Amino acid sequence: MKNINLKIADITQEDVCAVVNAANSSLLGGGGVDGAIHRAGGEQILSECKKLRASLHPDGLPTGEAVATTAGNMRAKYVIHTVGPVYSSCKNRCEELLANCYINSLKAASELKCHSISFPAISTGIYGYPKGEAAKVAYKSVKSFLETNQSMEVNFVFSSKESYDIFADAVKEL
């Protein structure tokens, strides 16, 4: 699809309207992409996340939901935080929950009038979602959303050639 791009890059350096953070439910930072985004964006992201926890999400952000904050010191204007499913404990809802991460992030970007967004491979790190399976869910979800929102440019950003290749191969199978 013409407005979907795959690339190997540092998501914190993306020059887009919004980058997606594969967050944990606390919204207060963590490891992997989450930690990298919080470090690159600085205190402003954490400050806004604390406000979200104090108001809209006192028990944490539910899996599959998405919320936006500033991107702080990053090139992007916004960070859209979404919590992916932990593969070993999402039972028969894994695909639905992961699809919701992508769809709800895209909806948030659309509400912010963003025309460009970059995603990491949500839930494929410590949350254990098999990369090939996750790639198919991600691509189908984004493609479906773009059928009615054709002005959005979507990037899937990978930190390694291995992850890029797994995603590209999985998409070819669709």
Jot down its keywords.
alpha/beta, 18% strand, 6 strands, 174 residues, Leucine Aminopeptidase, subunit E, domain 1
Q: Explain this structure to me?
A:
InterPro entries: Macro_dom, Macro_dom-like. Pfam families: Macro. The two termini are 12 Å apart. This protein has a 6-stranded mixed sheet, sandwiched between helices. It is 39% helix and 18% strand. The chain has a single domain (4-172), classed as Leucine Aminopeptidase, subunit E, domain 1 (3-Layer(aba) Sandwich), CATH 3.40.220. The protein has helices at 32-41, 43-54, 94-111, 131-146, 161-172; strands at residues 4-8, 18-23, 66-70, 78-83, 116-119, 153-158. The protein is of the alpha/beta class and 174 residues long. It has 5 helices and 6 strands, in the order E-E-H-H-E-E-H-E-H-E-H.
Globally, the shape reads globular
Helix content bin: 25-40%
CATH class: Alpha Beta
In spatial order, strands of the major sheet run 1-6-5-2-4-3
Examine the secondary-structure arrangement and name the CATH architecture: 3-Layer(aba) Sandwich
Count of helical stretches: 5
Q: In percent terms, what proportion of residues is strand?
A: 15-25%
What does the radius of gyration come to?
15 Å
Terminus-to-terminus distance:
12 Å
H and E order: EEHHEEHEHEH
When the domains are counted, the total is: 1
Given the helix and strand composition, which structural class is it? alpha/beta
CATH superfamily: Leucine Aminopeptidase, subunit E, domain 1
* pLDDT averaged over residues: 96
How many E strands?
6
The biggest beta sheet, please? 6 strands, mixed
User: Ranges with pLDDT <50 over ≥5 residues?
Assistant: none
